[in-house]
Amino acid sequence: MKNILLIIQREYLTRVKKKSFIVMTILGPLLMGLMYGFIIWAAISSTDQKQIDVIDESGLFINKIPASAEYVFNFPNISLEQAKSNFKESKRDALVYIPADILDNKNGVKIFADSGVPLELQNKIEGSIEREIENIKLTEAGITRSLLESAKINIGSETINLKEGGEKKSSSAAATIIGFVCAFLIYMSVFIYGAQVMRGVMEEKTSRIVEVIISSVKPFQLMIGKIVGVGLVGLTQFTLWILLTLGIFSIGGSILGSKLMDSQSSLSQAQMSNLPPEARELAQQQMQQGGSGIPTEMMPDIFSAAATLPIATIIICFLFYFLGGYLLYSALFGAVGSAVDGDTDTQQFMLPITIPIIASFIIAQFVMRDPNGSLAFWASMIPFTSPIIMMVRIPFGVPVWQLVLSISLLIGGFIFTTWLAARIYRIGILMYGKKASWKELSKWVFYKG
Amino acid sequence: MEQILEIKNIVKQYANHRALDNVSITIPKGEIFGLLGPNGAGKTSLIRIINQITAPDAGEILFEGKHLNESHIYRIGYLPEERGLYKKMKVGDHLLYLARLKGLSKADAMDKLKEWFIKFDIKSWWDKPVEDLSKGMQQKIQFVATILHKPDLIILDEPFSGFDPINANIIKDEILSLKENGSTIIFSTHRMESVEELCDHVALINKSEKVLDGSKKELKEKFKDNTFTVKYTGELKNTPGVFSITQVENEDSLYTGIVKKEENASINEMIGAIISQVELRTFVENIPTMNDIFIRTVNGVPSL
Are B126 and B139 in contact (CB under 8 A)? Predict the structure, then answer.
């Protein structure tokens, strides 16, 4: 036992002290933060206004197309030909032509520009013209816009879980997101840290240190020590990533926050000015309630629904399935590392291990849509897929007996793979200069001591 | 004589070949024991069983009369033939790690390591990563790691491979001083001159079976063929019933011949018969070298 601790200590410290670990641990969240920061910054700062001339021969739209943060519309009283010939000197970004017979000629509008016309601009102009024409036609038919608005009804539905504990408000959106994130983290960590175990075993074998070590400790102890040591490295890295990410986002958030608020209010004002007056009033009410341009009902809904999710269950299960999945697969990765004599040989043995991991991730996409179907059930029972699939299902609520069964099967599963891996490992690490075949591996399993 | 290790009827079977077939060897305490044999004879399999790296299919091993068990691991030091170190680790950390796996406390290991670093004058290596050392330097580190915990039984598999003659001599002296301090050394090698020089006892394994063992003296006695090298002037003839000449060369008037003593004659009788014929200058008994014994046994030449 003392020796296993020594091995765990070495495996842990040599990895944690590595420059690449420190760099990855710090740079990972920093890069994430920078990436999001850049995207937000790019979205905010691309607000230089574009000047657009509108030649309106119909006279219906003069001063009716509202300006926004991005676009300012001018209505010079000149002909199209004049405007076109002056276009270069006028330094306008685009020129819009609306023909006199716009009400009958739907396709008469033309937009001129030096380079391509942004889709946004095109949509905006088309939208403004459409709305004005709509108003005109409505008025002709004797219908006011407010009458029309009142005829439109928005239906929002709540999803409610019927369970023993009574009715619970739930949000399938929140459940899907949380389940997916957990499943993805497990998927990534099995690959990253499983591969580290494999490389560690290969390093010991190819550098020939292994025979000295196993004259002091049992091969099984060396293997378990490595698996646990790397697992702890994984937990350390995840913890640091989470803390650093939270730190960066809270610092970055407060810096960006003020700027974000400014631009948001200006953006939403611009958005509002696009809206017809009646809708504008509604939006203003919402602004007062929510303080942002996002409709108030939507966001709190997700949060309150997330709060009704079984958070404690999710966290405990995440830790369990993370460890279970990691132990199950890293033992197999370790066995592969012991059976090969160099990087090039790993491929043939890696494939059967990676296939179930990748398959579970693909199955997860289906399970998200139908978290209680028979595919979801079976995939969350089989230990090779359950760590990823069960995490997708848990936020939607899983019957206790299924959870217990799945956990028992996973424990059984990793005891089995660890046993199997240890049988292969103890022979494999001493087979120098030989490329093992599947047949040989199966024989090793049954060798004595 | 006291035994440190009794190997009894060990059998090790792999899928399609038997690595050890009913091998029994007794290893006396405080001596250097040569474990010899051609490549693939089963030496490494036996050494791994003694180190409890693998288990035998049949047979048993007694360490000082007790069944070999995990507690004996700390009393054995093993330098395998296929050896290496963690390349990225620092020399000092590495040695500390190996010493602690052999049951030493950190402080104890540190004290012992300091002695060795001073003895070998390698203090400057402590903080260097292993990969910065030459192969010979790494071998030295491995040797220190093998004997640091003062094991009672030291198993060295080809210890001199990779050493230059100067360092090989340093290691040889260390092996001899370990013996003087009471350790038993099992020494596996192909280099017969070092067997000749160091070993007190040898066992020869060929094709998974032990074909020979005994003290060096006994074996030489057993393998000597009653021939003598004589140098003389004059003319020497066979004397039936006492000796026969098998080979003669001459350089000017000095003859060098190899004579074979007949079974029943004594050496004194033979010398008498020779000096009655010629002026005898040199008379030396031909003692077989370990190399002769090895080759003759492995090639199946019957002993004379």
Answer: no
Considering only CB atoms, which chain B residues are within 8 Å of A219? Answer: 53
A295 and A271 Cβ atoms separated by less than 8 Å: no
Q: Do B83 and A212 touch (CB under 8 A)?
A: yes
Cβ of B51 within 8 Å of Cβ of A215? The answer is: yes
Residue-range domain boundaries for chain A: 50-149, 169-251+302-445
Buried residues in A401-418 as b, exposed as e (16+ CB within 10 A): ebbeebbebbeebbeebb
Are both B154 and B265 inside the same structural domain? Answer: no
The minimal CB distance from A448 to the residues B55, B79, B146 is found for: B55
Residue type, B165: P
A-chain CB neighbours of B89 within 8 Å are 14
Mean pLDDT within B43-51: 92
Residue A211 and residue B80: Cβ atoms within 8 Å?
Answer: yes
- Contact present, A224 and A427 (Cβ < 8 Å): no
Residue of A208, A426, A448 with shortest CB distance to B57: A448
Q: What confidence tens digit (pLDDT) does each residue in A345-377 have?
A: 788 888 889 999 999 989 998 888 888 889 999
Q: Do B53 and A207 touch (CB under 8 A)?
A: no
The pTM (predicted TM-score) of the whole model is 0.74
pLDDT level of residue A293 (50, 70, 90 thresholds): very low
Q: Identify the residue whose tokens are 């070949």.
A: B17
**What is the CATH code for A50-149?**
3.40.190.10
Same domain, B267 and B137: no
Inter-chain touch B101–A216, beta carbons under 8 Å: yes
pLDDT in tens, A380-412: 999 999 999 999 988 888 888 999 999 999 999
In a domain, B303, yes or no: no
CA A91-A95-A100 angle, to 5 degrees, is 145
